UniProtKB/TrEMBL annotation:
It comes from Stenotrophomonas rhizophila. This is TspO/MBR related protein. The chain crosses the membrane at residues 40-62, 74-91, 97-118, 139-160, 166-184, 191-207, 219-237. Keywords: Membrane, Transmembrane, Transmembrane helix. The keyword 4Fe-4S does not apply. It comes from the Bacteria.
Length: 256
C-alpha cells in the first residue's frame, strides 16, 4: 500500500500536465468557461493545485518508511483520494459531467477521512507536517471545488434556472459552508484545511466582484462573510486546543 500511495500521488501532477496540454480534450479551464456559474473562483486561485500536488507527493515519499498504525489507516483513503483526483481531470475534460461529479465527491470523502485519521491530538510534529497538513489542504480545496463542480453540472444540464442563478447558488454555498465548519471542527482547526477554504473563498470574491452575471455581487459579499466565519471558528478551535492540551491528550490516551 505504501508504494500505491506514492504512485497515486505522482499520478496527479503527471495527469494534470497532460490535461493542460490538451491531450484529453479541452483543458479543465476551457470546459469550465463554457458553463459560467456564481461559484467559480478567479483563475489565479487554481494555482493552489501546484502546492497540493507537491505536498501530496512529499507525503507519498515520507510515508514509505513508516509502519505506524496511524499512518497505516490513512494510506488506503489517501491513495483512493489521489487516484480519484487524477481520474477526475480527463473525465471532466471529456465533459462526462455526471461521472466527474461522482468522482470529485468521492475524492473529497476519501481525503476528509484521510486527513482526519492523520491528525490525532497526539500526532508528532512530523506527522502533522507531512501527512495531516497536505491531506487537509487537498480536502479543503475540494470542499469548495466539489460544490463548484455541482454548480457547473446544474448549468450544463439546465436542471435549474441559468438566467438567474442566485437562489440555488446561495443554497449550494450555504451547504458548502456547513460542510467546511463540520470538517474544520473534526480536524480541530489545523491551519491547512481552513487555509485552502479561505483561499478558495477569496478567489471566489475576486471573480464574482468583477463578474457581470446577475447576483455575482451578492455572492462576492457572502464569500467575504464566510471567510470571516471560517477565520473566527479556526481561531476559536486553536485557542481551545492551546488552553486545554493536556486534558485533551489525557482523554485521548484513556480512550485508547
Amino acid at each position: 500500500m505504501r508504494w500505491i500511495v506514492l504512485l497515486a500521488a505522482l499520478a496527479m501532477p503527471v495527469v494534470a500536465w497532460f490535461s493542460q496540454t490538451g491531450m484529453f480534450g479541452p483543458t479543465n479551464g476551457a470546459v469550465s468557461d463554457q458553463y459560467p456559474t456564481l461559484l467559480v473562483a478567479a483563475g489565479y486561485a487554481f494555482a493552489i493545485w501546484g502546492l497540493i500536488f507537491l505536498w501530496d507527493v512529499l507525503f507519498g515519499f515520507w510515508q514509505l518508511r513508516l509502519r505506524k498504525p496511524d499512518i497505516t489507516g490513512v494510506r488506503p483513503w489517501a491513495a483512493a483520494g489521489f487516484a480519484l483526483t487524477a481520474v477526475w481531470m480527463p473525465v471532466f475534460s471529456n465533459q462526462w459531467f455526471l461521472p466527474a461529479l461522482a468522482i470529485i465527491w468521492a475524492a473529497l470523502l476519501c481525503l476528509i477521512v484521510a486527513a482526519y485519521r492523520a491528525s490525532p491530538i497526539t500526532a508528532p510534529g512530523g506527522q502533522r507536517a507531512w501527512a495531516a497538513y497536505p491531506l487537509g489542504l487537498h480536502a479543503g480545496w475540494l470542499s469548495l471545488a466539489a460544490y463548484l463542480n455541482t454548480a457547473q453540472v446544474i448549468v450544463a444540464y439546465r436542471w435549474l434556472p441559468t438566467d438567474n442563478m442566485l437562489g440555488w447558488s446561495l443554497v449550494l454555498l450555504v451547504l458548502a459552508t456547513l460542510l467546511v465548519l463540520v470538517v474544520n471542527q473534526l480536524l480541530r482547526g489545523h491551519f491547512a484545511y481552513p487555509a485552502a477554504v479561505i483561499w478558495a473563498l477569496a478567489g471566489m470574491y475576486v471573480k464574482q466582484s468583477g463578474w457581470d452575471l446577475p447576483g455575482a455581487a451578492n455572492i462576492a459579499t457572502l464569500a467575504l462573510v464566510l471567510i470571516i466565519i471560517v477565520v473566527i471558528q479556526t481561531v476559536w478551535l486553536r485557542v481551545r486546543a492551546y488552553r486545554q492540551p493536556r486534558a485533551i491528550v489525557a482523554a485521548h490516551r484513556h480512550r485508547r
